[in-house]
Fold:
Amino acid sequence: MSKEKTHVLAMSAVTDENRFWNGLKKAHAQLPPGAAWTLAVASKDGTRAVNVIAHDSVEGVRDFFETHAGAHATTEYFEADAANAVGLPR
Structure:
């Protein structure tokens, strides 16, 4: 039986909008096997971003995300309460 994926919220305070999103575009093209990017959205002014990524662990998402966009934002990572979420695949 395969392990259920963890939905991770990556909430970022963006310092360089263009470099941050360009880094995430590269990251999306190199997703680790089994990972799924559910959501990527920015505030209208570009200073905040929320990404939801399903992967094996919060640490796995943190390592991957920081490699590609960490220099251009300060990001906090949280495990989502998927059982009580609306719209997340289970």
The mean pLDDT is 90. Strands lie at 6-14, 36-42, 48-55, 73-79.
